[in-house]
From TrEMBL:
Major location category of this protein: membrane
InterPro entries: Mntp/YtaF, Put_MntP
Transmembrane segments: 6-27, 39-58, 64-85, 106-126, 132-153, 165-182
Described function: Probably functions as a manganese efflux pump.
Family that this chain belongs to: Belongs to the MntP (TC 9.B.29) family.
HAMAP family noted in UniProt: MntP_pump (MF_01521)
Compartments, record wording: Cell membrane
Record-given protein name: Putative manganese efflux pump MntP
Cellular component, GO, one term: plasma membrane
Keywords: Cell membrane, Ion transport, Manganese, Membrane, Transmembrane, Transmembrane helix, Transport
Length: 185
């Protein structure tokens, strides 16, 4: 597989992570290096591991996973997006401790939800007889980089537009979930 094709696949897979990172950056003000590292590392790690898992599973699990993967991503993204919208709307009336999307189960849910499509890429690569190691590493690195860029942009936007952008970010996550779900039908 040539480097241009691989880079295109990696960038395409990283777009969900970028959009989620943009939303996370909006929520986190001020943004710390630790938060940037955590989300970038985890999104990159999950995005790099999912093609390996898909590649190893190969044809045997393809039918099962491809049926449920869009639903899993949809549920996780809708839950997280709904939570963001709720926190933004209730934050103006009373103090609410906002969830840090770079910690705990929220980070794990987002990492899984944004990397489910990479599982299908792993399946495809196994059918094509392509070695998985270079694509997995490339996908992970590009995703980590775009996650950090997204968080930095989101933080800057969030400073300018506050809770309105956080609400928009929640709707973006829900829209990504719907796109994944409807794209599978």
């Amino acid at each position: 597989m040539d480097i241009l094709t691989l880079t295109g696949i990696a960038a395409g897979l990283a777009m969900d992570a970028f959009a989620v990172a943009l939303s996370a950056g909006v929520m986190l003000n001020p943004l710390t290096f630790r938060q940037l590292f955590r989300l970038g590392f985890h999104f990159g790690l999950f995005q790099g591991l999912m093609p390996i898992i898909g590649w190893l599973a190969g044809i045997s699990l393809r039918k099962f996973v491809t049926v449920f993967a869009p639903w899993i991503a949809f549920i996780l993204l809708c839950f997280t997006g709904g939570k963001m919208i709720h926190e933004a709307l209730t934050g103006n009336d009373k103090p609410v401790k906002r969830t840090d999307p770079t910690r705990g189960m929220t980070m794990v849910m987002l990492s899984v939800a944004t990397s489910i499509d990479a599982l299908a890429v792993g399946f495809s690569l196994s059918l094509l007889g392509v070695s998985i190691w270079t694509p997995a590493i490339t996908i992970g690195i590009i995703t980590a980089a775009l996650t950090v860029i997204g968080m930095l942009l989101g933080s800057r936007i969030g400073t300018l537009w506050g809770d309105r952008i956080e609400i928009l970010g929640g709707f973006v996550l829900i829209a990504i979930g719907l796109k994944i779900l409807l794209g599978s039908v």
